[in-house]
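input
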Amino acid sequence: ASTDPGWCTRRSLSVFLGYPFLQLKCNRVTAVCHQRNKRARDFLKRVGFKEEGVLRQKYHPRDAVVYGMLKKEAAKWLRSDKNESR
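output
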């Protein structure tokens, strides 16, 4: 967590997304966000996450929004060799 938007650089996104996609060989990453957290939701969309659904009353009485990113959608953030990012 951070209150400074300066933390979010191309390098930091490469590291954060490289870990699950390149090191762990995951095909997708999931993010869950409180429905009222507009800043976080906007950030997830700008980075490339797609809204996938709603978890009703996850944060009772409020809902949560589920976002997902597939490995192929993260390619622009991944710094490794092209064969690994596919």
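quick obs: The radius of gyration is 14 Å.
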